[in-house]
Every structure is written in structure tokens, then in C-alpha cells.
DNA sequence: CGATTTGTGTGTATACATTTG
DNA sequence: TCAAATGTATACACACAAATC
């Protein structure tokens, strides 16, 4: 005798009672999955409460719990105690970002490349490496986490960001994303929870989904994630880790202030979270932002995996990132590196090493900063910042948009107009809040002029849009 | 009122009733985990049956099931219905094989390298690549799964093994192990089961363990895994995939006969398994073994991930493998590649491409085959093959040993004598059978003389050992 | 061969925590 | 502030399947 709102309002999903086969929970889960992937249940739809559906199907409600749990593990739905169960915003699509098959007629303001103009400098260094007498030493199975002199160069590189570590507690891996994959597989188990900003790196969201690790979105302000909110969530549920990009968060361009770093570190220490610190933008912040003191790794060395990728700062095609970690995490991380990569290409690592040791890496960085500054200035011309400023040298910007246009419509129309952008929904670690943004990449066009054309199109579109 | 063997024989593990906190299942699982990792419960030890332990602790037996299940997920224990629950053979150690921190005084017959003498040829080609006009095109984010001409070269390369595919259904990734990691994450979920040979590639075992994928060991004979056994297991439990190395299984050097390939393919098709075909040794078999017809991919293109690594055949330090897959697996695999690697180094891929297109790769292969043949002949001098012969050009051999010496003792004593080898336990996908082997790598010494010294030490040791 | 031992899979009962109004 | 709505966590009952003797 169900007494509830669905007496008046029909349930959003009424699975056919006869379609149910034993085992019930599997049968229900796969029916629900079909419904969602076919688009019959739209993202955001509220599913019937467990007890409702159980009454309707005349089975115990915990059997529904189990069916829902299966779909939850696949990222199709999410649940909030007290509120209900809902179809995930990105349930029926993948939000992974990659530069595969991009229509060439479009100006790409979606994918964040790294001002690839500087690759000519890299090309020169490649030639230098191939002239080395020890070239064949770079071609065998040895030194899977990096050759000692390569590690030393990496440590020097990171010293300028404030990292103090030794060669035994660092490893060279195949890029930041690879480092994240290694850290997640090494240190977390399916079902574990990781705290993140409400908007976070889309590929991290997908990676976590793939590995069945749940993300817990934590609110923040202009200085970063809010420590009290993190504290609250840690007390409420069992959270195992936290993912942060302190130097310039992707996609919001927010920098975590030094005070906030210390406050967050206190909470992380108290609850013994594992901190994944993706510091790919350190080169834009350390030594530039007057507030910058040190990475969070230095505050919590024993429970942090510090990841310093060179794709944005030095060269995107050479897949090299440095991982730094505490002794207690060391064994598991090395293990995961061997199981996922065997080793990182010594050749790629050697070229990055050469660039660092010869000083060319610093040249590249200053060139990229210059390009980034010009691009940001240009962006400001079109879209003057309102509200708290983000990172002044960011390779992308976070543009608040108003109106009630759907993501799909906007992205499609912009593509027809000639530019690709990403909507904020793509970066949602949990369910959707009310406000909307676009992430505008500034580093992917071949020239400032092409960027200008792109921004022009965007401006035009948004102006028209507001007028409608 | 328990009536069972433990009335007379004490239970192998009696957790302290008072140490139990709620929730019981977590408490029991962590007590058990401690006991095992501290070495207090030796590998192979039979744990108390679920009902026994439940009686003893005065709780429901399914609560024990749950506690055991947690430890099972961590690979600490395994269970066989009807027989009982046992501590895993490799519970307290990692069996991952890598060339990290190897004592240099030892002759290494453990790790399988790839006759690194041929790397001089590779070094020459590296220089050619750096002279290319399009070098800077290799340094950006584009073409994450390989540049079209690189893919074409890969397809040509694999055509000589009998692979027919197109560029949309292949991807270049960072080595075979990386390909396996990608395939497992992309196509399987935690808790899924994959059939393997009883002895299989140790890093695959560890990788599966890390990802909480269960391996189901299937018996085989000299022609490979037994189709009837596979069929039986598929009917009994829900098996999702199968891992095979048809051209030369690691570590047993067994080749799957063409007839057996077809028989296995029939079972795989019937039960809709996903086949992971690691064909890293194809270059030693295709065109050489008269029985070789085609890879299993050609028999089951829609449900196979074919992996062709170049580490053994061409160069180990350049991390390049080709993955080939059917349309139905395509999306998930590409997705996983982007999430784990973002992209594979175009530079490494370009060097391999250059080697293939210039014909140097074939030179390297024939050089390696020659080295492999000499090494195998030498091995035969010391240890004449008894029983069915393995692969004649294998980079390692599988040496049956008798006696009741423990793995640990044997490996330690051999290391003291100056050689490193791996015991068969390291390659066990399930629990331990009665017979023992050593895997002897032939491809890791710097010269035939060094190999001879190593084999001499081994021979001496085993002779003395049998005399004892 | 059939009873017993032993692990597995599925559905259920109950206490609890959070959100909402 | 408290009750109702709603999801979560834990323990249990029972039918079943495989291995063993």
C-alpha cells in the first residue's frame, strides 16, 4: 500500500513486471541501464525511490538498492540520501578529452594544447640527444623508473617549485594522466571515494569512473576547496583521497592560496587522506604568484603523490611526468608502474633531461608564458573578467554564461559557427549545479589571429544568445 | 555444536573473539589480513570453513563469507567450493617482474630481456628519424593512437603474422604490458573472471590482481589449453575473458597448435569470451613453425584484442605495441587509451616505423633469432629436453625440477651461487600443483659465455641438490 | 553413488544516517 | 525542531553447486 507522491505523479520509470527474471537485482539493473543508454531516461531524471519501486514490483527494497548500486558503479546514476536517486549528467556519453578526430574546419577552443609553437626548440634538442655516446643505453629494459641522471635533472626541475625529495622517492612516468592512472590503481580500490572540486579535470573524472572510484564533489570559493566542507564530508562518509590542482585548477583556473593550502593540509592529515597533487601548472605559478610558497607535498610528504607533468610546460608529444611520493606509498606505486607501463621510454625522458640541463626548458617556458600572456590579454578584450580573477597566465579561461540554453544546443550551434568549446557540464564531478560556464582554451590555435577569430565568433554568438 | 575435524585438530586460525568489533565482517577481514601479511599464516594453509569459524565466533556463516570475500579480492586467499579456503601462494609478496635494482654481481637468468646486442642497429635509425623534416609534428598532442603512416607500417608488420585489419581498428600504445592494462580496464570490471593457463605471465597475474579481476586457471597439454576444460569452467562459472599467448606461452614456451586454436576459438565464440591474444612472440613462430596458420584474432576478430609488442622483436626500450580489435570493442579501448596514456610517444613510434619501413627491423629479428638459436643449443647441452619440446627459439626455457626443496631456499641458494632464476610458483595463476619448474632466461646475458657460466652454476647446483 | 562438507548467490530484516519541509 | 522521506550498512536465511569421501 504505497502512500506517496507517485500515487498522483506517475513514477519516472516503471519497469515491466513481467520482464523481470531471476535474479531480480541483475534483471532490474540491466533494464535500467538500457533505458538510460538509449536516452529514454534523460540525465537528471529522478528515479523512483527504492521502497516505491520495490512495492511496485513486490520485492524487498534492498534488492532495488542492489540493482541501483550496480548502475551507480557504472556511473549511470547517483544517489543522495534523503533526496533520491538520479540519472547522472554524463550517463550516456563519455567526457574524455583527447585530440583524436577533430574536424579541421573548426577553430579548436576546446582541447587545451600547449602553445605548440615552441616545439622547434625541442626538435633541436632531440638531435643533440641522438648524438650522445650512450644512446644505446636508452634502448633497453634497464632503469624502468628513470636513469639516475634523468631523475636528478627532474629533481632539480621540481626544486624550483619547492619540491625536496630524493631519487628513491620519485619516478619518471609517461605523462600526468598516466601518473594519475598509476596512482589510482596503486593506492585505491574499487568503491573508494576521492574528494574533488565540484568542477574538475574531465579525464580524471572518466578515469575514476573506469576504475570504479567514486568522486565526492566539495564546494569551494575563490581560494580553493573549503576546508570545513571537506571536514564535513570526511566525517560523514569514508573518504580515502583527495585530488587537487593547486597551481591552477582545471577548468576553473583557480589557484589555492597558501593559507588555504595549510588549512586543507590540516584536514587531510587529520583524516589520513591520500593527496593526489597534480601540479602541471606549477611553472606558471611558482616564483610568479607572490602568494606561492610551496606545493602541498611539502606540507604532507608522507601522504601525497606529487605529479609534475612536462606536457604543458615543455613538450606535449614527449610523454614525461615526474611522480614524487612518500616512503609509505613507494612500494605500491612502483608496483603499479611496472604493471601498467613496465617502463617509460628512456629516449623521451632523455630529451626532456637534455632540455632541462641545457637551460632550453626555461627558454621554452618563458616563451610559452609570453604567448599565454598575449592570449589572456586578447581574451580580456573580448570578455573582461567579472568577479574574482583566475590565473593570469592560464592556458584556458572559465567563462560564466547565463540563460537556459542546453549544453547540447549551445555546443552544436557553436560548432556550426566554426568553433569548438567545452561546456561546464563536462567537468562536473557530481551532479549539476544551476550555473553554467564554458571553458575556452587559449593555447590550441596556431596563431593569435586564429584565436581572435575564434573569440570573435564566440562573442557574436553569446551576444545574439542573450538578445533572444 | 560443531561436529567436525576441528574438534580433534585445532583450527588453523582462531581469531580472538574479544578482538572482534562491529562491523564483524570488516573486523574479521582485517585480522586475517594482518595474520597473513605478517607471515603468521603461511601460503597454502587451509583456513577454517566458513561455518566452523561462524560457530566459533557465534555469528552467521555468511558474515564470514563476506570477510573472506574481502581478503579474496585482495588476492590474499582463494577458495574452492567443496574443498575449503586457503592462503594464496603469493599472498605476502609481489611477483611483478621488472629490471629495477638487480644486484649486478649476479648473472641474470630471471628477467627475460631481448638480446640487447641489436640495439646498435636501432641507434642508427634513431638518428635518421631526427633528420626528418616533420620532426616537430612528432612533438604535439595530435594523433594519440598513432600517425596514419605509423599505423600503416604497423599493419604491414602484423600482416606477416596473418593479421588483416584497418587503421581504425588498431592503435599504437606504450608496450604490451600497457596494452594489457588498457584492455583489462576497458573491457572488464572488478570481480570479472578471466581464464588463463595454469602457469602464465607473472605481470599479467599481478595486473589482474591489482584491478581485482580474478584468474581462473585451466589445465592444458603440450598443444595448449584444453578446450573441454575451458568449456567446463565456462559452464560452471561466469567467465568473461581469456588470456592466451599462442605463439610461445610465457613461461612454459608452449605453442598452441593450429587445430587447438580452432577448437579453443569454438568454445570462446560459444561463450562470448573476450580473447586477449598476447602475440609478442609471433616473430619467432609465424613463417617458421610449419603448423602456424594465423593468429586467433583472425578466427574471432569481433571478440579479440590482438596485442603485438615490439619490445622482444625490435627494441625493448622504445615502448611500442600495436593493439588490434573488433568494432564492438573499439570505443571502450580508445576511451581507456586516452584515460591511461593520453597518447603514446610519437617519437618512439616513429623510430619503430622507420625500422620497419627501412627493413632494419627484419635484420634485427634475424639477428635475434640467430642469438636465440645459439642460446638454445647451449642450453640443450646442459639440460637436454625430456618430454615434449617447447619453442625451439624461445628466449627462455622451462626446466622441470624434482625434489621437495622450497622455492625460497632454492632461489636464495642460487643467488648466493651467483645466478638469479624464477621458480614456477611465481607464475601460478591459481593455487599450487605438485610439480616444480624453473624459468631460465636465455636472452639477458651480455654474451654466450656469460650464459654458459650461468648454466654451469645452475647445473652444478641441481646435481648437488639431487644428490642430497 | 550418495551423503557430507564446503563455498556461492540471492533475497530479506533491521538499524541507521541524511535531507527535506 | 521534529517527523517523514530516502538511501546505506550490516547481518542473516536459505537454496544451490561443487568437491570429497
Q: If you had to describe this structure to a student in words, what would you say it looks like?
A:
The structure is a homodimer of 468-residue chains. Chain A has 468 residues and is an alpha/beta fold. Chain A folds into 3 domains: 17-87, Arc Repressor Mutant, subunit A, CATH 1.10.10.10; 107-117 and 369-466, Alpha-Beta Complex (Aspartate Aminotransferase, domain 1), CATH 3.90.1150; 119-361, Type I PLP-dependent aspartate aminotransferase-like (Major domain) (Aspartate Aminotransferase, domain 2, 3-Layer(aba) Sandwich). Chain A has helices at 24-37, 50-57, 61-73, 119-130, 148-159, 176-187, 202-210, 227-236, 258-270, 282-285, 327-340, 346-358, 360-382, 407-417, 448-467, and strands spanning 46-47, 77-80, 84-87, 107-108, 170-173, 193-197, 214-218, 220-221, 224-225, 241-244, 274-278, 304-309, 321-325, 396-401, 419-420, 422-423, 436-441. Chain A is built from 15 helices and 17 strands. In chain A, the strands form 5 sheets. In chain A, strands 5-13-12-11-10-6-7 form a 7-stranded mixed beta sheet, sandwiched between helices. The longest helix of chain A has 23 residues, at 360-382. In chain A, a hairpin with a 3-residue loop joins β2 and β3. Mean pLDDT of chain A is 91; it is low at 1-8. The interface between A and B is large, with 66 and 66 residues. The structure holds a DNA duplex (21 and 21 nucleotides).
